[in-house]
Amino acid sequence: MVDVEEWKKKRALQAAAKELVVDLLLHKGLYSFITIEDEIQNEAERQIREANVGTFDCFCTTCGQVTPFISQSMPVKNSGGGLRHGDGLSRPPSVFALRSVCQRDLTAYLYAFQKVGDRLIKIGQLPSMADISFGELKRIDKGLEPGDRKELGTALGLFAHDAAAGAFVYLRRVFERMIHRAHQRRGEPVEGFDQKRMDEKIEAIKDALPERVVTNRKVFSVLSQGVHELTDDQCKALFPLVKAVIFQMLEQEEHQRRKVAAEKETEAALQAVLASGIKFENGVKDEEKA
Ligand SMILES: [Zn+2]
Hints:
Elements: H1 4-26, E1 33-35, H2 39-49, E2 55-60, E3 65-74, H3 87-90, E4 95-102, E5 108-116, E6 119-126, H4 129-138, H5 146-160, H6 164-185, H7 198-204, H8 211-215, H9 217-220, H10 232-275, H11 283-289
Antiparallel strand pairs: 1-6, 2-3, 3-4, 4-5, 5-6
Helix pairs in contact: 1-2, 4-5, 5-6, 6-10
The structure holds zinc ion.
Zinc ion binds next to loops.
C-alpha cells in the first residue's frame, strides 16, 4: 500500500530540491555551488546527476520568449576514478553534464557540474547567462539610456563569470538611475527625495513600480549601504533580484509604450476612415434591406 504521507513528503522534497537546481541553472553564475549537507541538497545533487529535473521555464535565445525546457543527461567520458583500472570504484564519477532543450524549437542549453568534496559546482554553461540575459533584454531595452544599457551589459557579463561584487556595483547604478528617472517622470517632485534611503524612495514613488517591489521594499534598504559594506554573498544573493526588478520595470515601460503606439495607430486609422467620406452609419441597415 502506498503511504500517502510518505509520498507527500517525497514530493515536497523533490519540489524544494528542484527549486535549488533551477536556481543554480538559471540564476547563479559560474563556480556557484550547492553544498550537499541536508536531504534537500542531496536530492538536488541526484536530480542533476540523473538529469531528473523535470520541466522548467527559461528564456530561449532562439524563440525570443520564455519557453519550457526539459533536461537530459549527457554522458561525460572519464568522469570518475584515475587512470588505473579499478580506480573508478574507489572514486566514482564526479563530472556531470546536462542538456536542456527548448520544447518549442529544440534549442539546447548545455550545463556542466563537478562534485568536489561536499560541493556540487557549476563549472560550465552555454549559452552564457549573460547571452541569455542579453536576449531577454533586447525585447524590452528601448526604455534604457545608452549608458545604462552599457553598464547593465557589464553587470550581466561580470555576474556570469563569478564577479558578483563588481557586477552588483554596475547593476545598482542602473537601478538607482531608473528609480531617479521614475521620480522625475512623476512631474510632482517628492521633497528631499535624493536624501531618502532606497526603501523610502520606493515607498515615495510606489505608483511607478512593480507591486512586489513596493510590498518588499525593506529588502532594497540594503542598497543604501556603501558598496564596501556589502559582502560577496549578499551581492550574489541580491543580484538576481535587482536584475529581475530592472527587467520588470523595463517590461512595464515597454508595455506602456506599445499601448500608446497601438492607441495612436487606432486613432490614425479611425481618422483615415472618417476622412474618406464613405458613409457607414446606415451600412448595416442597407444590407438588411437588400
Ligand atoms: Zn526555443
